[in-house]
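Below is how a single chain appears once it has passed through the pipeline. First comes the sequence as given, then the structure the pipeline wrote out for it. We keep one example in the README because the format questions we get most often are answered faster by looking than by reading.
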Amino acid sequence: MIWVCTKCGYEVESDKRPDLCAMCYAAMHHMIPKKEEEQPEEKKD
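Resulting structure:
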């Protein structure tokens, strides 16, 4: 899972939410899961 800091935008891959942002040291509640961009499904005729 990829977590994104809402303060500075830093992204980190981790199984659980990081305690602090490694770049700006923001608290855990600033780390949110990154929204995966869904690939549009191909239309089948």
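The chain has no helices and three strands.

See the next section for the split statistics.
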